[in-house]
Write a structure and sequence with these properties.
CATH architecture of the largest domain: 3-Layer(aba) Sandwich
Strand order of the largest sheet: 5-4-3-6-7-10-11
CATH class of the largest domain: Alpha Beta
Structural class: alpha/beta
CATH topology of the largest domain: Rossmann fold
Largest sheet: 7 strands, mixed
CATH superfamily of the largest domain: von Willebrand factor, type A domain
Number of strands: 11
Length: about 325
């Protein structure tokens, strides 16, 4: 591997001090609240709860007790994690100083570093609008994290492309990732419909976390008067008057409808979801997400898509 640019070394060093060490302190090193692992050593048996994965039901114990019981396993000493990364043109949107792509790179770098510091291996699959467009094989160590960051940072922005179809990408991931792993799907999920079915297949085989990136302007159109909207993927332009109350009302209705569709799709896919905006505090978001998963593990909260949005600093 060629030497990493100094800015990436500096970025990873900054993340080590400002994010990862804070996570160590706030989570007290217990990352099992974030990643349950897929170990095979039986740790406990307990009664089935609504949020539990039916694959973990112990049918022999269930038959004896006449009540559904699930198996809990110790976490594997080593975990292989894969990042399925959406780098389609819509990920380059940013209404502030940072883009969704910047949030994707930071999230991936932090989680890859957290995992590799504990002896785990990480790899990545890239999507750029035309399906699978690159693979970083799983590896470990700081240099491997820098390699992953370099691959992400050096990829050119796409001005236009075919409309995003994540279903192709997720099917490719399902075909490539045979062994049970920890899988992060990082995307804004601006895609043709139908991606929830292959994501559901991934969730059945792997421990899957969906990371949805969203820019505030995608939900709340600012009142800027006359300006041009451009589709990030097709390049289509539309001249609009954002001061028009009727237009803003229609925009809000479309946003609400899309949010409802996404909630239903995430629910069908069976994945836990964390939501991030480019300006969000990553530490607070991950700690909140770990608390959500801890409550769910204790039976206090049913699975709910997008239940762990982040907040700003």
């Amino acid at each position: 591997m060629s030497a990493s640019p100094p800015n990436l070394e500096h970025m990873l060093h900054r993340l080590d001090w400002t994010v990862i060490r804070r996570l160590d302190g706030l989570l007290q090193g217990d990352y099992r609240t974030l990643f349950r692992g897929s170990g095979m050593d039986l740790a406990d048996l307990r009664e089935y709860q609504l949020h539990d994965d039916a694959r973990h039901i112990d049918w022999n114990v269930t038959a004896r007790m006449n009540t559904p019981y699930v198996r809990e396993h110790n976490e594997d000493r080593e975990v292989t994690a894969w990042f399925l990364l959406d780098l389609s043109p819509s990920m380059d949107l940013g209404s502030g100083e940072r883009r969704k792509r910047d949030a994707l790179i930071e999230f991936t770098a932090v989680l890859a570093r957290v995992l590799t510091r504990r002896g785990n291996r990480v790899g990545a699959l890239f999507y750029s609008g035309g399906g699978l467009d690159g693979v970083i094989p799983a590896g470990g160590g700081r240099r491997h994290v820098l390699r992953l960051m370099h691959a992400l940072s050096s990829r050119p922005e796409l001005k236009t492309s075919n409309p995003t179809d994540l279903s192709q990408f997720l099917r490719a991931g399902f075909n490539i990732l045979k062994r049970r792993s920890l899988v992060f799907v990082v995307s804004d999920f601006i895609s043709a419909p139908g991606w929830d079915q292959p994501q559901s297949l991934l969730a059945r085989r792997h421990e899957l976390l969906a990371v949805r990136l969203v820019d505030p302007i995608e939900r709340d159109l600012p009142d800027l008067g006359l300006f041009t909207l451009q589709d990030a993927e097709t390049g289509e332009r539309l001249f609009v008057d954002s001061h028009d109350k009727a237009f803003r009302r229609r925009f809000a209705q479309l946003v609400d409808a899309r949010e409802a569709e996404l909630r239903e799709a995430f629910g069908r896919s069976g994945a836990d979801v964390i939501e991030l905006s480019p300006g969000d505090n990553l530490v607070e978001a991950l700690v909140r997400f770990s608390q959500l998963r801890r409550r769910r593990a204790r039976g206090g909260l049913a699975r709910h898509p997008a239940a762990a949005p982040a907040t700003g600093p």
